[in-house]
Structure prediction request, 469 residues.
Amino acid sequence: MTRFATLVPMPLPDSALDTLRERLGADQVLTQPEDLIPYSFDGTAALQQLPRCVVFVRSAAEVAAVLELAQRTRTPVVTRGSGTGLSGGSLPVRDCIVLCTVRMNRILEVDRANLTLSVEPGATTLQVADAAAAVGLFYPPDPGSMKISTIGGNVSENSGGLRGLKYGITRNYVMGLEVVLPDGEILTTGNKCVKDVAGYSVKDLFIGSEGTLGVITRVLLRLIPKPAAKKTMVATFGAMDAAAQTVSDIIAARIIPCTLEFLDRMTIRCVEDYARIGLPLDCEALLLMETDGHPAQVEDEARQMAEIARRNGSKEVRIARDEAEANQLASARRSAFSALARVSPTTILEDATVPRSELARMVRFVEQVAAKYRLRVGTFGHMGDGNLHPTFLTDERNHEEMERVHAAFREIFEEAVRLGGTITGEHGIGVAKKEFLPGFLGKAQMRVTRELKRVLDPNGILNPGKMFD
Prediction:
């Protein structure tokens, strides 16, 4: 078994805090408990831990200075953007430094000639998308939290989104990274070349590494031409199986929609109560379907998808009349989590991914598990790529109920793996799923993962306790 240096967190001495203030500026270092509370949790329910301090960095040099001090004092460092993560990946550990990158939020360059964009990690996903759109280009990854999630967090979690079926996920758009290693050394990997096979693809080690291997300080992203046209539709169904079959038939017809999302009955009702979009309440499932590209292709694909939905018993196919209505329909899916969160004190949103052929079976299994453990659940997600978001509505103060929630998720993850799927499609491992990782990866892959961590972070200061112990 791989051995790591044992990291026993010790409170930072006052002299070390003084050093941080000198290097970063007093206004860049928070130490008072009331100031630390907003940084003691992320988007994951029922998890909280006060850090020792929070530091705001504005450059790679400042990140390096923090990490050099952390190495000397053996202080754990947890990197944080907006804190929207849903697996506890940016949750502080005891006596740690929270290294917050939100003030590194500049768009550094938009290169139209090479279709690239260079950006600091604290810029939001929406900032990146808007900067690309301003010059007629397109950055496709669109996590549900894109208005507030940061690009550094997107890369660290390898975030997905509604357009993942057609356009892929964050990894598919990262061409280069600047990363500060745990000892303070600055590493640059990747470039603007479309083809580059010189050596190992080092940048790919850091994509999805959840802040355990280095601190991302600059990202070079690939952009693509903006689609000329788009059409958005919503189809409703009396049965989940009919919605799932519609998805299968659309793919079988060699149509790859931009978006192919679904909401179950519970989620539809919560969204309509929350957003008043005008969704029908007499259906079991709803599909949000969107096609984009050349205008003629869009018209043809939209027509075919509507026909396929009706052939599978769709009760109604509603086609957006204009961009405003299309955005309104898309907001039904984007507001699903917020809508469900209003129902109970605690909302636990998870993600499990299965092959598309197993979607209907998996959705039924989630419903059965919820009934077995006497829990309320709303399920929505990216039906086009098999990524489900079973969301349990509970109360973390009810410890007995939380035990039932945990047991239910264990069965859901086990079933997803049994069906050929995975324990997470986009939220990451963090602390929420690390107990399931060894069983999913197997001994060889876990050994390699641990070895990579040991080589890059031998003292284990970066995000300790995340992904694995």
Q: What stands out?
A: Residues 288 and 367 are 21 Å apart (CA to CA). The chain is about 35% helix and 20% strand. The domain at 344-433 is CATH 3.30.70.2740 (Alpha-Beta Plaits).
